[in-house]
Amino acid sequence: MHWIDPDQLPEITGTVDQFLVNKHGEADGFLLIDGEEVHVPPHLSARLLRDVRPGSQVKVRGVRPRGVQMIAAVAIDTPKGRILDEGPEARADGEAFETAKHGPMSAQGIVKRPIHGPKGETRGAVLEDGRIIRLPPHEAGRFSDLLAKGARISAAGEGATTSFGTVVEAREIGASADTMKAVGPKKPKHGPDHKEPKHDGKKHGPKHAHA
Description:
By secondary structure, this protein is mainly β. The chain has helices spanning 45-51, 137-140; strands at residues 11-21, 27-32, 37-39, 57-63, 70-78, 81-84, 101-116, 122-127, 132-134, 152-162, 165-174, 181-182.
């Protein structure tokens, strides 16, 4: 968002509570102690993790989606300086802060709060023990009751473990291990029953007899 003047955007300040982690093991946001959620573009992950820690005081300027207690960060002022989103092409280095450990994983617990994408779309939840469960936005509506604060949730799928957080990308989800349902893939644009026109190679139109 290099074309936006961040100093003209809404501002919040607070103390970092915990990082949010995506399925690749990157930090794509954090929670403040007061409950505010901050979404950070994943291409800023390495810089964010170098400059910010739980307990850090930050000032965030960004865009607020409607109806959600969160802000999509454009600029983050930290004790070590300003982190500014100038787009993926401005990534300072091609290296991750840390290589995540990936593998099958499950998680169960009580939801502390739902978490969101940059436009306010629900993308999962943080448990009271700090672990994160994520699922595709197109499935979040179907499982919205499980992602609400205080809900009991169980999930199994592909996990990523880092020193700054653990996440499960759910393939199955439910209120308990005995009631889990499969998380479906995104449907094709034309739907599963869409078929291409048939071409049988036959000539169209009546045949003409020769006199």
